[in-house]
Amino acid sequence: MTRPIELEAAERRFGNGRTQVIALHPTTLGVERGELLAIMGPSGSGKTTLLSLVGGLDRATGGRVLVEGKDIGQMSPSQLALLRRRTVGYVFQDLNLLAGLTARENVSLPLELDGARVAAAQALAAQALQSVGLGHLADRYPDDLSGGEQQRVAIARALVGGRGIVLADEPTGALDSMTGESVMRLLRNHCDTGGTAVLVTHDAAHAAWADRVVFLRDGRVVDEARTAPTQEFSVGTTA
Amino acid sequence: MGAHLGGSRLAGELALTHQSVAWPGSNRAARASEHHQLIVSSTFYGLTLAYPVCILLEPPFGEDTLSVKFGLLALLADAPAHGYELKTAFERRTGGSWAINIGQVYTTLQRLERDGLVTELPSVGERHDYRITSAGTEALDAWFSSPVVAEAPPRDELTIKVLLAVAAGDVDVTEILQRQRRASIEQLQAYTRRKAHADPDRDIAFLILLDALIFRTEAEIRWLDASEARISSLSARVREAIS
């Protein structure tokens, strides 16, 4: 079965000659269906570059990036736009909700842009908001929602219409720890029900919701941590 | 307990000062002030750094022992109980994660009885119940109402390991930090898995315990990140100075 996300020696360089900067050295990395992958590393280590390549917001200057088995480097701008509307949802730290639209309208927008009828799109949007626990706030405008609620709207918008892959760039950055935790529970639940997510974060407690944590440094994957399912849980003393 | 550290040199890098160490009994304040300085100096990209590291030796009665002592007193404040009941109740109240052995329960009870904080009730058959005394209640109240102050500076193995690795010129500190970071994240993943499966209404003690473990581990990771940032900014400055 094809993996939802596959990087094959994907790299990203900027400029050339003496001023060339390698934001991401050739990187090979696969993400399994149902997996929540976290990417950690200091600023400038290439985290956001990697995520942008997977989301088709930026193009690799070498190697290949495959999403659901398709090489996105070969896609036209309109094919990329289609990929982002149907397959890959994005959640950013700064929420990017449109202030003039209600929560429901924000969530239904990608479906309407994709040609869905307004009534059908709004019904799916209402369902998506329900699934993030915001069914009762569907008619509120972003300004009337708390930071955590706005972020849950952004997640509903990323998931709406059955998009299987969520890419999240510091989605908990501006939230307090309990609210951040509720966002992580949603991403965890998305993956536990067959979805896939890649999370960029500097917050270890949130990265720990992932099945696998990849560490980047200077544009290279240097290490990874995995959940050990059989790990013994024992603290304190038996002295 | 005493240890002779004076005058020794480790690998030509470390100079230990002070002559010997001895624990002056069980007074915590006195213990906290007893420390030894380890002067660490190292040559790092041509710069010589020297700084003191305070080392506190493991006290004879540590945090664990104190927690068990007051944990048992808190349980006895509810009702008299015997050793095995106390063991199981202690484990349940601490979220099922802190296993104590029955020997430690009895040793602690003996010490509490010696100090007049509990008293053994006349035995009924095989049962030896203990009851809290009024002095015990006072001690427990005082414990609950006083904040816990962590001893500084830290004396844990990880801190010392990193400090010594920075001092030793031929050790890859970044690699040590990353190995520890991976281990800490994996620990955090294990705690988080437990948290994800816990019931927020019924497992409140367990969740609060998990939060404590998670935040502590998170603090450790932040410290690892900060250490790495300091080391890389120092080496960048040194490279700049050389070129």
In short:
Helix content of chain A is 32%, strand content 26%.
Mind explaining what this structure looks like?
The complex is a heterodimer of chains A (239) and B (243). Chain A is α/β, with parallel strands linked by helices and 239 residues long. Chain A has a domain at 98-163. Helices cover 32% and strands 26% of the residues of chain A. Chain A has a 6-stranded mixed sheet with strand order 6-7-8-3-9-10, with helices on both faces. Chain A has a 4-stranded antiparallel sheet with strand order 2-1-4-5, covered by helices on one side. In chain A, helix 4 crosses helix 5. The termini of chain A are far apart. Residues 230-239 of chain A have low confidence and may be disordered. Chain B is an alpha+beta fold and 243 residues long. Among the domains of chain B are: 63-145, Orthogonal Bundle (Arc Repressor Mutant, subunit A), CATH 1.10.10.10; 172-243. In chain B, strands 2-3-5-6 form a 4-stranded antiparallel sheet, covered by helices on one side. A two-stranded antiparallel sheet of chain B has the order 1-4. In chain B, a hairpin with a 2-residue loop joins strand 5 and strand 6 (47-55). Chain B is elongated, with a radius of gyration of 23 Å. The N and C termini of chain B lie far apart (52 Å). The model of chain B is unreliable at 1-61 (pLDDT under 50). The interface between A and B is medium-sized, with 28 and 34 residues.
Tell me, rounded to a whole number, the average pLDDT of chain A.
89
Q: Strands of the largest sheet of chain A, in order across it?
A: 6-7-8-3-9-10
Task: Provide the CATH top-level class of the domain at 63-145 in chain B.
Answer: Mainly Alpha
Rg of chain A, Å, rounded: 19 Å
Q: Structural class of chain B, please?
A: alpha+beta
What is the N-to-C order of secondary-structure elements of chain A (H for helix, E for strand)? Answer: EEEHEEHEHHHEHEHEE
**Total beta strands of chain B:** 8
Number of strands of chain A: 10
Summarize the biggest pleated sheet of chain B: 4 strands, antiparallel
Mean pLDDT of chain B: 74
Amino- and carboxy-terminal Cα gap of chain A: 50 Å
What are the low-pLDDT stretches of chain B, counting only 5+ consecutive residues below 50? Answer: 1-61
Overall form of chain A:
globular
How does CATH name the architecture of the domain at 63-145 in chain B?
Answer: Orthogonal Bundle
Largest pleated sheet of chain A: 6 strands, mixed
Helix content of chain B: 40-55%
Specify Rg of chain B, calculated over alpha carbons. 23 Å
Return residue spans of chain A where pLDDT drops below 50 for at least 5 consecutive residues.
230-239
By DSSP (H or I, 4+ residues per run), the number of helices of chain B equals: 8
- Assign the CATH topology of the domain at 63-145 in chain B: Arc Repressor Mutant, subunit A
Query: Could you tell me which chain pair has the largest interface and how many residues each side has?
Result: A-B, 28 and 34 residues
